[in-house]
Amino acid sequence: MLGKYSEEDGKKLIKLARESIEEEFTGKKPEMPGEKQFRQARGVFVTLNKNNKLRGCIGFPYPTNPVAEAVYLASREAAFSDPRFPPLKEEELKDIEIEISILTSPQECNCKEVKIGEDGLMCNYLGYQGLLLPQVATENKFDRIKFLECLCNKAGLPRDTWQNKNFKLWKFQCQIFGENSERKSL
């Protein structure tokens, strides 16, 4: 199991995320934190909220990049390339709250093993894929069945596809850092 990040580490990553987005408007490249924990490869998602509503969310479920690099890339993608939203405008920056989710490595599981309030989910069925962070279930007060149905929906599948024997499911946990909230782990 990879180590947890401290509150101070979270603040550095949030600062990096905000500066990564600001770079688009200022041209000033952010300084990457150099400590070894930021060079560790981890899955990362960056979520942007505006007025308590989703404004962008992009990430990397697998540990393909060092954490600092993943935060830099995901922040820019969430702000400017999430296909669900237009690119972020400079005047919106002041209204954006950033949340970073650092993921554990996904573990294959069955539907009965899913724990609401702990697990995020990824699925694959005939090439259709979906991912929901653990906070989606808790924020929306989903039970396990509703969470699985929403995962299928996110993958572009009928809601009951999770019951198919060829449905592949993985779970993961997150350490979450919010810009204007306390750190929490799910």
Q: What's this model, at a glance?
A:
The protein is α+β, with helices and mostly antiparallel strands and 186 residues long.
Topology:
Elements: H1 7-26, E1 43-50, E2 53-60, H2 67-80, E3 96-103, E4 107-108, E5 120-125, E6 128-132, H3 134-139, H4 144-154, E7 168-172, E8 174-178, E9 184-185
Antiparallel strand pairs: 1-2, 1-3, 3-8, 4-7, 5-6, 5-7, 8-9
Helix pairs in contact: 1-2
Q: Main traits of this protein?
A:
26% strand, 4 helices, disordered C terminus, 186 residues, globular, 4-stranded antiparallel sheet, alpha+beta
What is the helix fraction of residues, given as a range? 25-40%
Look at the helices and sheets and give the structural class: alpha+beta
Low-confidence stretches: 182-186
Please give the count of helices.
4
Query: Which sequence of strands runs across the widest sheet?
Result: 2-1-3-8-9
List how many beta strands DSSP finds: 9
User: Mean of residue pLDDT?
Assistant: 93
Question: What general form does the structure show?
Answer: globular
Task: Using the CA coordinates, give the radius of gyration.
Answer: 16 Å
Distance between the termini: 15 Å
Kindly estimate the percentage of residues that lie in beta strands according to DSSP. 25-35%
Order of helices and strands: HEEHEEEEHHEEE
Major β-sheet, in short?
Answer: 5 strands, antiparallel
